[in-house]
Write a structure and sequence with these properties.
Radius of gyration: 24 Å
Bound molecules: ligand BES, manganese (II) ion, zinc ion
Number of domains: 2
Mean pLDDT: 95
Strand order of the largest sheet: 8-9-11-10-14-18-15-16
CATH superfamily of the largest domain: Zn peptidases
Shape: elongated
């Protein structure tokens, strides 16, 4: 897809199809009362609610020719969030594509209240790029990607250089998101730990990032037995993949991002029921978000050094699989009773969080599809953030709001920590009581992080995947978290 900026306002009656955002049932348009009146009349006539991501396409009588228009709803102003704008743009693009439109035009001079011109261009461009994505790797006879579509932002701009920057940023981020979405959506028979490692290696090389990948023998040597226990039932060996971006200041301590990358979560010996299992290729989405962010930092070159680590394994039952009751000794030296092999994410993250400390991080953020309980608590609307540093939690929530991803803080209390004390070992991998499973999972992780390192845990189990088609995307990986993390890193 091609993006461009045109400083002059859109020519009425041109060949472009104009995207118009609708808020509180009113079109966001400046300086064209004729058009505004026509759209308002249409809204009344059709009963279009202007609800978020609703997108009727129609044409009206322009000054010279009929004008093609796509209205796209932002919902009411009092509930406005950046994700509504980004998704409305994606939905508009999808509607336009379906209608066979080639050139879409967005006027940048009337953003929703509270959104700057540059943030508007950035969110709309990134949304449009995302709307153009389709996972077609396994559809025979389908052409790969549509390059014909183009989106033009029309002025007048207050600051066209800043808008150009915002657009470039959106394009770089989108290319990372779209490329990584193909891997995230690839099922477990194809996206094996080895293939993910190969993919990461190639991407690291293309982007000038440092790369390393620990294999089974090396992980054994380092006593990463929690990670190895998870992979023990699988024919696929575990990996720890590390990607490294060095910021301009060589002495600065890096931020370390750690992604849960379970290529398939069957539950292991604590087998999941069939219905809960058929989309568990999604369990690698934390790692996929980290992969996307690393491509973004390689291109956007922030001040801070960033290290991305993927803890990769496939959780399968089998003759050599870990059994409920098994006790293993983690890389950190703590012993763990594996009481439920389906609580595997925290096991692989425990070793990764311990290994990460060798980089002397200024902060660590892990991101994981960790608990079904976070879906019970927050549904598919927001991800949970927990950790050992309230300021870090807050700055991630703030970055999420700006990036169009919602986070909600959940507690991590001493009671949650106590709940994870083992009977025969230091720790057990599920709680003694039955509740607060998102918090107890985080408490388990916290025992592998020293108090001196600010650390946050993002539980994206409810937000990493769309199970059904939405106006802004087909079913599949959302790469939730990547947009927030790049926003957060840029602000450091
Ligand atoms: N990857 C799952 C979390 C999950 C479960 C995501 C259901 C989406 C839907 C994780 O590995 C898991 O199985 N967690 C268990 C933990 C439990 C055994 C303590 C869960 O949440 O049920
Ligand atoms: Mn599991
Ligand atoms: Zn899992």
């Amino acid at each position: 897809m091609k993006f461009s900026l045109k400083p002059r306002p859109l020519n009425p009656g041109g060949s472009e199809c104009r995207i118009v955002f609708i808020q509180d049932k009113k079109p966001l348009i400046s300086g064209d009362s004729d058009l505004e009146a026509q759209i308002s009349a249409q809204i009344k006539k059709t009963g279009f609610s202007g609800d978020f991501a609703q997108t009727p396409v129609f044409s009206i009588l322009g000054k010279t020719n009929p004008e093609e228009l796509i209205l796209t709803g932002l919902g009411p102003r009092k509930h406005f969030r950046m994700e509504y704008l980004e998704r409305a743009a994606a939905a508009a693009l999808r509607a336009g594509k379906k209608a066979g439109v080639k050139v879409l035009a967005v006027s940048a001079d009337a953003p929703p209240a509270g959104v700057s011109e540059t943030d508007f261009v950035h969110a709309v461009a990134r949304g449009a790029a995302w709307g153009n994505y389709g996972f077609n790797l396994f559809k025979t006879g389908r052409k790969k990607r549509d390059h014909e579509l183009s989106v033009v932002f029309t002025g007048p701009f207050k600051n066209s250089a800043a808008c150009r920057n915002a657009l470039t940023r959106a394009e770089l981020e989108s290319s990372a998101l779209l490329a990584t979405a193909d891997l995230a959506n690839t099922p477990a028979n194809e996206a094996t730990p080895q293939k993910i490692s190969d993919w990461a290696k190639k991407t690291a090389k293309e982007n000038g990032l440092g790369f390393s990948s620990l294999n089974k023998a090396e992980l054994k040597k380092k006593n990463c037995n929690a990670l190895l226990a998870v992979a023990a039932g699988s024919a696929q060996d575990a990996k720890i993949i590390t990607l490294e971006y060095k910021g301009p200041n060589p002495k600065s301590r890096p931020v370390v991002l750690i992604g849960k990358t379970i290529t398939f979560d069957s539950g292991g010996i604590s087998l999941k029921p069939g219905k809960g299992m058929n989309w568990m290729q999604y369990d690698k989405c934390g790692g996929m978000a980290v992969l996307a962010v690393m491509q973004m930092v390689a291109q956007l070159k922030p001040e801070t050094s960033v290290i991305g680590m993927l803890a990769v394994a496939e959780n399968m039952p089998g003759g050599s699989a870990a059994r409920p009751g098994d006790i293993i000794k983690s890389h950190a030296g703590k012993t763990i009773e594996i009481l439920n092999t389906d609580a595997e994410g925290r096991l692989i993250l425990a070793d990764a969080l311990s290994l990460a400390q060798q980089h002397n991080p200024s902060a660590m953020v892990d991101i994981a599809t960790l608990t079904g309980a976070v879906i019970t608590a927050l549904g598919h609307t927001a991800a949970a953030v927990l950790g050992n540093d309230p300021d870090l939690n807050r700055s991630l929530i703030r970055a999420g709001a700006a990036a169009g991803e919602r986070f909600w803080e959940m507690p991590l209390w001493p009671e949650h920590t106590d709940d994870m004390n083992g009977t025969f070992a230091d720790l057990q991998n599920i709680g003694r009581s039955d509740g607060a499973k998102t918090s107890t999972a985080a408490a388990f992780l916290a025992s592998f992080v020293p108090e001196t390192i600010p650390w946050a845990h993002l539980d994206i189990a409810g937000t990493a995947w769309e199970e059904t088609s939405k106006p802004w995307m087909d079913p599949g990986a959302t790469l939730f978290g990547a947009r927030t993390l790049i926003e957060w890193i840029n602000g450091l």
